[in-house]
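Form 7-S
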Amino acid sequence: MLPLAIETWRMDVYAESPEFVLDHELTEYYGMSDLSPSSFDSLSNRFAVDSELALKYQTTKTQQGISKPDSCDKKCRDEVYCDTQSSTYEDSRVC
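Output:
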């Protein structure tokens, strides 16, 4: 039993008529074949070596907010890798 899609929606609360707008669907956004654990593991491994992909994750993580990063060096890629390798916060801290 795997989810078929994961969507991220956003809203501009400062707009004259705020409404939810689809931002992206996860498999399309990151080029994943499906939402299986092995696909997420593969994505984490790609974050570790692909600066642009890791930056894309960091930008999406903050929803392109104030702390939007400009680049993602090795330290940044390592942090993204650790953040996405486990769903347990403590595991990511000791990664």
